[in-house]
Design a protein that fits this description.
Layout: E1 4-10, E2 14-22, E3 25-33, H1 37-49, E4 54-61, E5 76-77, E6 88-89, H2 90-98, E7 102-106, H3 107-118, E8 127-132, E9 136-142, E10 145-146, H4 180-184, H5 186-193, H6 205-225, E11 230-233, H7 242-254, H8 261-264, H9 267-270, E12 271-272, H10 280-290
Parallel strand pairs: 1-4, 4-7, 8-11, 11-12
Antiparallel strand pairs: 1-2, 2-3, 5-6, 8-9, 9-10
Helix pairs in contact: 1-2, 3-10, 6-7
The site of zinc ion (ZN) has 7 residues, from helix 4.
């Protein structure tokens, strides 16, 4: 029997837990609502205890998180606006309950690793994975290593030009108002246009503005990190008509300054949806466990 791994995609609304070795070999999976840390983690731990012996568990989680292995709060969700979840010892609680090694990273780095192993970023060593949903976040690799740093990148909170005449909406970020997340996240769309983004038709003016903001962010990331590809997932990006709009605007904003065939000759292959669909996160968590 092959060695099995557990993965937890810890999200703000649900925890997806799975056991297996990859996309073609998942043995069990469960979705647990994110209520309180005590309740949600107890259910996740019960699920893994019911499974055959696991070699390790990977956790890819919402944050902010402490990723410094030398820190006394390593593996914690630190300060989050999500009620009850600030200072939650996620990795330690799981490790103590299951008595196996636990790998720990951000949800977007987890998804990036999953996409690198099995999905749209296979064979690349420098790329980013962005999620555009209830929040906006970015992870990825540079030179074959997952992006970490002082804490971890917070690509969703970059500042982008905001034309108040075209878009008087002040933004929804509790910390910055009109940062990228404040202007372009799912809740921003809903608040600006007065209805859920899923109910806005593809012709609605919302999408041109949304693509404009996302393209501004992408060119900043392209200039800063020089990714070989950009993978865009999350609930908002399930509106697939956004992709051609974003690609066109990125080309216009770059204005042929970046002389790379990836961008100039194959923009359709450069800005892409996840190869693993909405499974990047949980599969990435399993990949994290395998990388220990
Ligand atoms: Zn912000």
């Amino acid at each position: 029997m092959s060695v099995l791994y557990g993965g937890i995609e810890a999200g703000g609304t649900k925890f997806v837990c799975a056991v297996g070795t990859g996309p073609d070999d998942l043995h069990a999976e469960v979705k647990i609502p994110t209520t309180t840390p005590g309740e949600t983690l107890a259910l996740a731990i019960d699920f893994f205890k019911e499974q055959a012996d696991l070699a390790a568990v990977g956790i890819a989680t919402f944050g902010p998180v402490d990723l410094d292995p030398g820190s006394s709060t390593y593996g914690f969700i630190t300060r989050t606006p999500k009620p009850d979840w600030s200072n939650t010892d996620l990795a330690g609680t799981v490790r103590r309950a299951l008595d196996i090694p636990v790998a720990f990273d951000t949800d977007v780095n987890g998804a990036a690793l999953g996409e690198n192993r099995w999905g749209a970023a296979k064979g690349l060593d420098t790329f980013i994975y962005l999620t555009i949903g209830t929040g906006i976040g970015g992870g990825g690799m540079s030179g074959g290593r997952l992006l970490h740093g002082m804490i971890h990148p917070e690509m969703g909170h970059i500042r982008i030009p905001h034309d108040w005449e075209r878009d008087p909406f002040p933004g929804v970020c509790p910390y910055h108002g009109d940062c990228l997340e404040g202007l372009a996240t799912g809740p921003a769309l809903e608040e600006r246009w007065g209805r859920h983004s899923e109910t806005l038709s593809p012709e609605h003016q919302a999408w041109d503005l949304e693509a404009h903001y996302l393209a501004l962010a992408l060119v900043n990331f392209i200039f800063t990190l020089s990714p070989q590809r950009i993978v865009m997932g999350g609930g908002v990006m399930e509106q697939r008509h956004l992709f051609p709009l974003i690609r066109q605007k990125v080309l216009e904003l770059l204005n042929e300054y970046v002389q790379a065939p990836e961008v100039l000759d194959d923009i359709e292959g450069y800005i892409v949806p996840p190869g693993l669909g909405n499974r990047s996160g949980v599969l990435g968590a399993i990949a994290l466990a395998q990388s220990l």
